[in-house]
Design brief:
116 residues, mainly beta, six-stranded mixed sheet, 0% helix, globular
Length: 116
Amino acid sequence: QVQLVESGGGLVQPGGSLRLSCAVSGFTLNTKSMNWVRRAPGKGLEWLSRINSVNSGGGTTIYALSVKGRFTISRDNAKNTLYLQMNNLQPDDTAMYYCQDQDGQRGQGTQVTVSS
């Protein structure tokens, strides 16, 4: 059974950093391309970043323009965990953040609030 569990969200001041984690069970993480997406209050789902599987791009990463240069996606194969390092956070980054596998399955999300 596939399970994705996000953690690491919280309240942070503008300019601050957070690292989100997504613990994966039910499959080997690097065999699927994985994404981070978010939903801000009153808005639709926004795709942020993807890390490709070992068989499809060999772990290459891509980013949305809104987060490129500030966010970094990575994975720890030994821990079967996906990460999103977020730096220089701004109020517009306030949202519920989800990891999502290539089949569209998402976890329950973790809330990030950026406010002074």
